[in-house]
Design goal:
Length: 921
C-alpha cells in the first residue's frame, strides 16, 4: 500500500510539472474601422517549420478567443473569416499566460486597395484553391503529374486519373487555355513542374453560365497551371530515349520528345511519341467512337476488377477492338499546339495531331450463356492484326468585337483509316458437353472515316447586368466508306454428330453518311436582384444515308459479282426536333438554383429504299431540369441536379440489315424502335478543410429509363444460333453511391484516403422474346496511404477490394466473385543524385462456379536512375515485370453471361534510357 501511494504521488507531481510548462493564450478580434467585435472567426496556431496546424478555435460574440494548455515555443497565429482578410503574425509562448491584446481585421472590401496578407503555400479565394508550386518539392525534371501527387487534396492514380477534393478532374488548362485540346493527360505528363508558378483548382462553369452570369449547375472540376513569368519568355523541353533487347518478340524501345516555346501571349508546343511498349496516343473519346467490338456487347474489365460493358448492337462496318492494355502495339503519336492572343481581343488556338497504331493480339474467350434451364458454352480464339491511323485538327478563333459583342469560330477535322484482319476459331457445346457448332473465319477490314464539325457562337451583353443574347449554330458530319471481306466455314452438329456446313465467301461494301445541323438562340432577362429568366429555342435536323451491299463470290467468274439481296440494304433517315425552353434561375452568394423545362417536338422520317417502305412518326417530349447549389462553408458545396431527356435510336439500330459477320451470332436492325426517355438525379456533397487537410466527398445518383433501347436474343438451344435485334424495354433502373474521405495524420505526416462505393443495376433482358430481370450489385472499398520525405523517400500503399454479384430471373443462382489489388509504390533516394523506384501489385481473382481456379499474379517493376550536370541529364535502367507474371486474364458476369477472357501481354523486359531536360538559361 505505501508503494502504491508513493507511485500515485509521484505521477501527480509529474503531471503538475508537465502542466506548468504550458500556458494560456488569449486575445480579441475587432473590425478595423468600426472597432466592433468579429464573431465566429477561425483562429489557428501553426508550427513555423512546416505550417502544420497545432490548435485552432473560434472567436465568441465579443470577439474573444482563448487557447488553453499551449506548449512553450514559437508559432504562427492566423485568422480566417469569410468577410475579413486573413491575418498572420509570429508569436512566442512562454510558461506564463499571454494576452496578445486586440487584433484589428480589415474587411475584404479593402483588399483591392491594401495588401496585408502574407500568403502561405495554400490559399483559398472564393471557389478557387491555389497551391504555390515552389513550396512542394519534387525531383529535378519532374513533370506536373509528380507535382500534383504532392499537393494536399489531390490524388493521381496509376492510370493517370486525377481527383481533386474527391472529384474527378475533367479539364487541365495552361494559363487558362487548353493544351493540345481537351486532354488532361497532355499537360500533366509533358509539362515540367519547375515551369509552374501556381496550381489552381476550381469548378469551371459552363461557357453559357460564364457568359450570362447565371449558374446553370453544369460544372467541371478543373486545374489551371499558371506558368512562371520567366518560363513564358523562352523555351524548355525534354528528349527521352530508351532501348532494350527482348528475346522471342522484338527489342523494346521508346522515344519521347517535347518542346515548348513561349513569348508573351504566344505559346508553341510540339511533341513526338514513338515506341512499342504500349504507350498510346488515342484518347478515350476516340476509343469510344471508333473502337467498338464486332460482337453485340462491348465489355471490359481492368486489373482492378472494375467491369464496364455496353450493348452496341453491332455495325456492319465495325472497327476491330484495340485494347492497349493487352496485345503488342507499336505507336507513333505527334502533335503541335499553337495559341496566341492579340490586344486581348483576338485569340487563336490551333492543334493538329497525328496518330498511328500497329497492333497484334491473340484473344481467347470462354463464355457460359444461360438459356432457360440449359447452358451454352462457347470457346473462341481470335488473332488480330490492326494498322490504323488518324489525323485531327482543332481550330478555335475568338474575337471580341467590342466591349459587349464577341464571336467565336471553331472547326474540327478527324480523318481516320483502318486496315485489319482477324482469324477466328470457335466452338459451342451444350451443358452435356456435346458439340453444337464449329466455326473458322477470316475477316479483313479496309475502312476510311471522315469527321468534320464547325460552329459559330455570337454573344451580346446588354448594359443591364445578366441581360444577354446569344446565337450558336453548329454542323457535324461523319462519312464512312468500308470494303470488307468475309470468309468462313460454319458447321452445325446434332447430338454431337455433324449435320450440315455453310461456307461464306463475301465482299461487303458500305457507304454511310450522317449530318447534324443545330441552331440555339438564348435570351436571359434579370428579374429583380437575384432572379433571372432564360428563354431559348433549339432546332436540330439529323439526316443520314446508309448503303450496304454484299456480294457473293462466283466460282464461274472468279469475282465477287453476285449481289446477296438478303444482306444488302439502302436506308435513309431524317429526324427534326424543335425545342422551346424556359428556365427560372436564382443566384445568391451561397445558394444558386434553377428550374424549368424544354418541350420537344420530334418528327421521324425513315425510308427503306430496298424494301420500298416508309416509317413516319411524331413525338412530343417534355425535358424537365432542375439544379441546386448550396455553398454552406468555404470550399464546401452541396449540389442537386435533375434532368429528363430523350435518346434517339442510331441509324445502325434502325436499319433492317442483317449482319452475318458471325454466322452463329447474327444481328438485325429494327425500324420500329421508339426513342427512349431517361430521368436522372444526382446529389453530391464536397468539403475540404485547408486547416486540417481533410476532404470529404459523397455522390449518389439514380437513373431510370423508359423505352430503353435494349436487345432481344433469339437463341436456338439445339443449334446455338443466336439472332439479336434491338427492342424497347421498360423497368430499367440504376443507382450509384460513392464516398471519398481523406485526411492527414500530422504526427506521422501520413496521408490516408478511403473510398467505399456501391452500385446497383437492374436491366430488362429479352431471351426468345421472354423478358427477364438482370440484377447486378457491385460494392468495393479502396484505401490509399501516402508518406514522403523530401530527397529521402516516398511510399504509397493501397488496396482495392471489389465484389460483383449478379442474378437473373432465368434461374435462382446468384453468381458472385471477389477481386483484390494490393499495390505498393516506393522511391528511395541516396547520395542526392541516385534514386531507386519500384512498384509492386498483387492481383487476386476469386474462383467461381463456372471457373474453378483462383487467378493470382504479381507485377513487379523497378527503375534505377542517376542525374548529371545540375540535374539536366538523367541516365536510367528499368526492368518491367521482373517476375514474368503479367497475364491478361479477366473474368466477368453480366446479364445471363459469365465469361473469362485471356489476351497477350507484354511480359518481362529491360531497357536502358537517357533523358535530356533542357531550358533557356
Amino acid at each position: 500500500m505505501p508503494k502504491i501511494t508513493l507511485t500515485i504521488a509521484f505521477l501527480f507531481l509529474f503531471s503538475l510539472s508537465a502542466f506548468s510548462q504550458k500556458a494560456n493564450l488569449s486575445g480579441v478580434l475587432t473590425e478595423d474601422s468600426e472597432k466592433t467585435p468579429v464573431y465566429n472567426s477561425v483562429v489557428a496556431l501553426l508550427t513555423p517549420k512546416d505550417s502544420i496546424l497545432y490548435k485552432f478555435t473560434r472567436s465568441d460574440k465579443e470577439g474573444k478567443f482563448n487557447f488553453k494548455n499551449v506548449k512553450s515555443g514559437n508559432y504562427i497565429l492566423m485568422t480566417a473569416h469569410s468577410l475579413y482578410a486573413d491575418y498572420l503574425d509570429s508569436i512566442s509562448v512562454v510558461e506564463k499566460d499571454k494576452n496578445i491584446g486586440t487584433i484589428a481585421l480589415i474587411s475584404k472590401m479593402k483588399l483591392l486597395r491594401e495588401v496585408i496578407i502574407k500568403t502561405g503555400s495554400i490559399r483559398i479565394k472564393g471557389d478557387t484553391t491555389s497551391y504555390r508550386a515552389s513550396d512542394f518539392k519534387v525531383d529535378a525534371n519532374a513533370n506536373v503529374e509528380e507535382l500534383l501527387k504532392k499537393l494536399p487534396g489531390i490524388q493521381v492514380d496509376k492510370n493517370g486519373t486525377i481527383k481533386a477534393m474527391g472529384e474527378k478532374v475533367e479539364k487541365v488548362l495552361v494559363d487558362g487555355e487548353e493544351f493540345f485540346g481537351d486532354d488532361p493527360g497532355m499537360a500533366v505528363k509533358n509539362l515540367r513542374a519547375d515551369a509552374v508558378k501556381e496550381v489552381q483548382v476550381f469548378d469551371k462553369k459552363s461557357d453559357q453560365a460564364e457568359f450570362t452570369g447565371i449558374d446553370d449547375g453544369e460544372t467541371k472540376k478543373t486545374i489551371n497551371l499558371k506558368l512562371k513569368e520567366d518560363k513564358k519568355k523562352g523555351y524548355f523541353g525534354k528528349i527521352d530515349a530508351a532501348n532494350g533487347p527482348l528475346i522471342a518478340i522484338a527489342p523494346r524501345y521508346n522515344t519521347n520528345v517535347l518542346l515548348s516555346s513561349f513569348k508573351g501571349k504566344r505559346k508553341l508546343s510540339a511533341f513526338l511519341l514513338n515506341g512499342n511498349t504500349g504507350q498510346d496516343g488515342l484518347d478515350w473519346q476516340d476509343s469510344e467512337k471508333y473502337g467498338t467490338r464486332d460482337d453485340n456487347v462491348n465489355m471490359s474489365m481492368d486489373d482492378d476488377g472494375n467491369i464496364n460493358y455496353e450493348w452496341t448492337g453491332g455495325n456492319t462496318d465495325d472497327e476491330p477492338y484495340v485494347d492497349t492494355q493487352n496485345g503488342f502495339i507499336k505507336n507513333t503519336n505527334a502533335g503541335l499546339q499553337y495559341s496566341n492572343k492579340w490586344n486581348d481581343k483576338q485569340t487563336l488556338n490551333v492543334s493538329p495531331k497525328y496518330n498511328n497504331q500497329i497492333y497484334t493480339n491473340t484473344n481467347s474467350r470462354s463464355t457460359q450463356t444461360q438459356v432457360g434451364q440449359s447452358q451454352l458454352n462457347e470457346n473462341t480464339a481470335t488473332v488480330s492484326n490492326v494498322n490504323r491511323s488518324n489525323f485531327k485538327l482543332n481550330v478555335a478563333y475568338d474575337v471580341k468585337l467590342d466591349s459587349v459583342n464577341s464571336i467565336k469560330f471553331t472547326a474540327k477535322t478527324n480523318l481516320y483509316k483502318t486496315d485489319s484482319d482477324e482469324f477466328i476459331n470457335g466452338t459451342t457445346t451444350g451443358d452435356n458437353g456435346l458439340l453444337k457448332n464449329k466455326q473458322e473465319k477470316t475477316f479483313t477490314t479496309d475502312s476510311d472515316k471522315q469527321s468534320f464539325s464547325a460552329s459559330i457562337l455570337f454573344k451580346h451583353k446588354f448594359a443591364r447586368a445578366r441581360r444577354t443574347f446569344s446565337v450558336n449554330s453548329s454542323w457535324n458530319s461523319l462519312n464512312t466508306n468500308s470494303n470488307n471481306f468475309l470468309k468462313s466455314s460454319n458447321e452445325s452438329y446434332d447430338g454431337g454428330v455433324f449435320s450440315s456446313r455453310n461456307d461464306i465467301n463475301q465482299n461487303k461494301t458500305g457507304e454511310k453518311s450522317n449530318q447534324n445541323i443545330a441552331v440555339n438562340i438564348a435570351y436571359t432577362e434579370p428579374v429583380g436582384k437575384k432572379f433571372a429568366l432564360q428563354l431559348a429555342y433549339q432546332i436540330t435536323h439529323n439526316s443520314g444515308d446508309s448503303n450496304y451491299l454484299t456480294y457473293n463470290y462466283s466460282d464461274v467468274t472468279g469475282n465477287y459479282d453476285s449481289l446477296d439481296h438478303s444482306l444488302s440494304n439502302e436506308f435513309n433517315q431524317s429526324i427534326t426536333t424543335n425545342k422551346p425552353i424556359i428556365k427560372l434561375s436564382y443566384n445568391a452568394k451561397k445558394i444558386n438554383y434553377s428550374f424549368g423545362s424544354g418541350f420537344g417536338f420530334t418528327s421521324f422520317d425513315l425510308q427503306d429504299q430496298t424494301l420500298d417502305k416508309e416509317y413516319k412518326r411524331n413525338y412530343t417530349n417534355f425535358y424537365p431540369a432542375a439544379n441546386l447549389s448550396y455553398k454552406y462553408a468555404s470550399n464546401s458545396n452541396l449540389r442537386f441536379r435533375y434532368e429528363g431527356g430523350t435518346k434517339q435510336p442510331t441509324l445502325d439500330q434502325l436499319q433492317p440489315l442483317r449482319n452475318n459477320q458471325d454466322f452463329f451470332n447474327q444481328i438485325i436492325g429494327n425500324p420500329d424502335l421508339k426513342q427512349s426517355f431517361t430521368n436522372s438525379i444526382n446529389i453530391s456533397n464536397s468539403s475540404y478543410s485547408i486547416l486540417t487537410e481533410s476532404q470529404f466527398y459523397q455522390n449518389i445518383s439514380f437513373r431510370t429509363t423508359t423505352n430503353l433501347i435494349s436487345y432481344n436474343k433469339d437463341i436456338d438451344s439445339e443449334s446455338a444460333k443466336t439472332t439479336t435485334k434491338p427492342i424497347n424495354t421498360n423497368g430499367n433502373f440504376s443507382a450509384n453511391l460513392y464516398f471519398a474521405y481523406g485526411f492527414k495524420v500530422k504526427k506521422l505526416d501520413l496521408r490516408i484516403y478511403c473510398n467505399p462505393s456501391v452500385s446497383y443495376n437492374k436491366s430488362i433482358i429479352s431471351i426468345n422474346n421472354v423478358l427477364n430481370d438482370s440484377k447486378t450489385l457491385n460494392s468495393g472499398l479502396s484505401v490509399y496511404l501516402n508518406k514522403f520525405k523530401e530527397k529521402r523517400y516516398e511510399i504509397s500503399l493501397s488496396n482495392t477490394f471489389l465484389n460483383n454479384r449478379n442474378s437473373t430471373s432465368l434461374n435462382d443462382d446468384i453468381k458472385s466473385f471477389n477481386t483484390n489489388n494490393l499495390s505498393l509504390d516506393m522511391g528511395i533516394y541516396f547520395r542526392e543524385k541516385w534514386k531507386l523506384s519500384t512498384d509492386y501489385n498483387l492481383y487476386s481473382r476469386q474462383k467461381t462456379v463456372d471457373f474453378q481456379t483462383n487467378l493470382n499474379n504479381q507485377l513487379w517493376n523497378a527503375r534505377l536512375q542517376r542525374t548529371f550536370k545540375k540535374d539536366e541529364f538523367t541516365a536510367y535502367i528499368m526492368v518491367r515485370d521482373i517476375l514474368n507474371q503479367n497475364i491478361g486474364i479477366n473474368r466477368y458476369v453480366y446479364e445471363n453471361v459469365t465469361g473469362e477472357e485471356r489476351n497477350d501481354r507484354l511480359q518481362r523486359y529491360a531497357m536502358l534510357g537517357f533523358t535530356w531536360n533542357f531550358k533557356n538559361k
